[in-house]
């Protein structure tokens, strides 16, 4: 970007004056403090932001790098930090959660109420024999009980693993098996967009698939009360589990490194990996980034629209805002129901002041707003907003400008936050009262985060030159391990190419030649980002070829999509003659449904193309670059002379 093209948005004097980090000099001072005394900086913040049962004396332990330990001799409890201490500070009657159901009904929970509910669930789980170190899978929709269930696990030292409600029985089964969970917490149904989805019956199906012998109990939250089947001796209603339980429960104090949660995410190879997070370091960054990036204050109404099934929901719904005693929205539904004005109406109704969502949602709501004034943000009073955020994928400048003008009224800074499941919290992001904004850039590293751009040998490249995004020093909220697979952890994140010294994010990046601002250029591995959801191309390929009666071979690539960022495009070789017309359409539908069953609806390929075979190199490697060009509809400029059967290019050009 040339200087003339860069449009800077400086924080207004009022925004800057009121912010926790006020002005670039304050930002720089924090970066300098971290530079001068890295451990001292994080230790200071860990003491300021968290309450410790046993104060830590050690900060960072790198003896077994890259298996780093932070604050290892300190003990604490995440749920104590999020709930009890707010009540002790006099915030017992403050609203912690404003829950809005799909149909619009609103329920509120104060800090005292959330603490009581969490404690009852915690006591109930203890009654089922769940203790420190046990794993609990949570497969539930957005609800106060969803948050309370996570907090309850944290309270008793059980490690939770939340599985997004959109994943299939097969995916759920894989995660249950990998975690060895003792219990599953679910709901009878999930209600989204006016439709009911039978969550509990998916849990039954997952367990029936086998490999889930570790599960002794299934706890079921009643959402609709429509009939479901309950297995005697195994299944118990949440209402019955908590009935008669005390509303107090002494927190189980755990070491800072105790695994707070496992969250499965996609990599470039193999099955989804269980990203393991710590208690102390993770909670520190959750609280700190909520304070500095979102500038959360006592009277804010904070709304992160993510699902608790994703890391964004963990850090910026379940932990960060609660650790600071904030008030937040938890929303069960979808942005387009009953119409595409739902988000704007909710901001108006609840006087939301900080709003955090994904570019894909913004892009789809722009389309809807442009087509219909009734759902255009101008038809709502959004004057309560003071800060906007974006996460999950790059936000294109056009969407940024619309978000800024139409949602933020031209006055709200936008924090474009780059981070990952593995990083626990924000890594590269503006701070609203300090950083001048550039649409499409996530700007500068969070103070203390040593992000940079290197070449394939690990050497830093000059600003203005694209390369690989890495982090030079360990940080408190970083991934600790891949559950049960330390070798894969090392290979994935601290590869030998960089002598095991640099954290590899898996994204490409470029820093502006003049400002040093970062722009993320997309994944450098075979991970797709569809509507902000991460998916491995290999996972989808395996799902396709597992349809053994139909599929001989499959290759999956991403292609750009105006709304979802990337779209999944599958190239399939069938075990039968090449289909055309309606028959091809019917088979494509069958394959989409199959992938939906294997992984979940979010993984269904948008495009399906059939060929008698796939383009391969002489050594038999699938020519993925060529497939990407075909998927984009580009004319083929690559050398295709080595193709065994050039006719397939014509076949693969047809999209079903
Ligand atoms: C929090 C989350 C991580 C991947 C990441 C990158 C992409 C996330 C971004 C962004 C550009 C941003 N990503 N935020 N790309 N700008 N502000 O999304 O975690 O689901 O693990 O995805 O998402 O590619 O590597 P996760």
From TrEMBL:
Record keywords, A-Z: Acetylation, ATP-binding, Ligase, Magnesium, Metal-binding, Nucleotide-binding
Catalytic activity reported: acetate + ATP + CoA = acetyl-CoA + AMP + diphosphate
Gene Ontology molecular function: acetate-CoA ligase activity
Annotated binding of ATP, by residue: 392-394, 416-421, 507, 523, 534
Transmembrane feature ranges: none
Modification after translation: Acetylated. Deacetylation by the SIR2-homolog deacetylase activates the enzyme.
Domain AMP-binding enzyme C-terminal positions: 539-621
The EC number(s) this enzyme carries: 6.2.1.1
Protein task: Catalyzes the conversion of acetate into acetyl-CoA (AcCoA), an essential intermediate at the junction of anabolic and catabolic pathways. AcsA undergoes a two-step reaction. In the first half reaction, AcsA combines acetate with ATP to form acetyl-adenylate (AcAMP) intermediate. In the second half reaction, it can then transfer the acetyl group from AcAMP to the sulfhydryl group of CoA, forming the product AcCoA.
Protein's UniProt name: Acetyl-coenzyme A synthetase
Native source organism of the sequence: Leptothrix discophora
